[in-house]
Amino acid sequence: MTIFFGVVVGFLVWFVLRVIVLGIYTVDQNERAVKTTFGRAERLPGNKTTLDDPSAEFLKPEERARYSYPQVRVIQPGGPYLKMPWQDIRKISIATMTVNMAKDLEDSSANSGGTKLDAVTKDQLNTGMTGQIRYRVSESNLYAFLFGIKRPFVHVTAYFVSVLRQKIANFEAKRTQPSGAVAAVPADLGSAPVSEMIGVSINDLRKNLRDLNEYMDLECRSTLARYGVLLEASLITGIDPPPDVESALAAINTAHNQVSSDISLAQASADQKIEQSKRAVEIESLKAQAEVEPIKLLAAELSQLHAAGAGALQAYLRNVRLKLFEKVQDIYLSSQTEVQR
Asked: Are strands 97-100 and 87-93 parallel, antiparallel or unpaired?
């Protein structure tokens, strides 16, 4: 009887400790939690999947079946909550994190000790890039983060690096012809933009870091549906060429700046001459108009006199001759001219 009583008391003590004391938990403000029963996460009613979430629109058609994860019930911050001994609580922080883009989570010695990410450009230059990745775990797809992938951050960073290296290897600057460019261009240069004439992609990368960052943000929108991690921003801050070509690039950039300056001066001179020519044509047109206008008025007046009768036109001509005689000093008449008085 004493043994039985001791077993009962021991079971009650274990039950109190295991269920009530150890079964009570809380969730912090920057955390979300998922409850599992015998290892199975609690699903939302209706068998909803990530394909029902707006984040799935960024998945390619062939990826939708592969990344179809069930939506689970997310425990919001607060408490205390109670769980049974056969249940487990998986907590995860949803705070925004920042990581060095060159950091390899599996090999700390890779990428020059996590300081510089290597990538090859389209002209076979091995460049080193520096920057950061800002990300956070999304509560709308916690199943993918907790159960879909063993090491989700490794997958996310590897996906980011692969997309970035692919873009670096095929990057081309936007080819926009400057407005008002001079039409006459030497035949050996053609009408190609200056960046295209240089042919060094690392210069284009340095000048278009903003476009590169925007491209990475667009391409990584699918990470939310893939891995449950949202890449909020990629901040590529530096692109460094190999040391053995740094001096050559400096010389190319100097030549490029000189060519750009010469083109700008030529364009400004051409624009100035074109504007002066327009003004000269406008002035001459006004002069011609000023000379033609009196002749038009005289023609209209003569037409009215002719319509009034032949006598009116002859009287007008006589008055004009008289005014001319008042202004002259000498008059020369032909011997055959008949003078009427």
From this structure: unpaired
State the pLDDT at residue 199: 47
144 secondary structure, DSSP code: I
Residue 119 CA to residue 190 CA, distance in Å, equals 31
Question: How many other C-beta atoms lie within 10 A of the C-beta of residue 109?
Answer: 8
Low-confidence ranges of the chain (pLDDT < 50): 177-200, 339-341
Structure tokens at 330: 């000498």
Number of helices (H) and strands (E) in the chain: give both, helices first: 10, 9
Write down the H helix ranges in 84-151. Answer: 110-114, 142-143
pLDDT at 97: 85
The predicted structure's pLDDT at residue 193: 44
Residue 320 corresponds to which tokens in the numbers above?
Answer: 């004009």
Distance of CA 114 to the CA centre of its chain: 28
pLDDT for the residue numbered 87: 83
Backbone dihedral angles phi then psi of residue 129, each to the nearest 5 degrees: -115, 145
122 exposure class (CB count in 10 Å sphere: 0-12, 13-18, 19+): middle
At 340 the pLDDT is 45
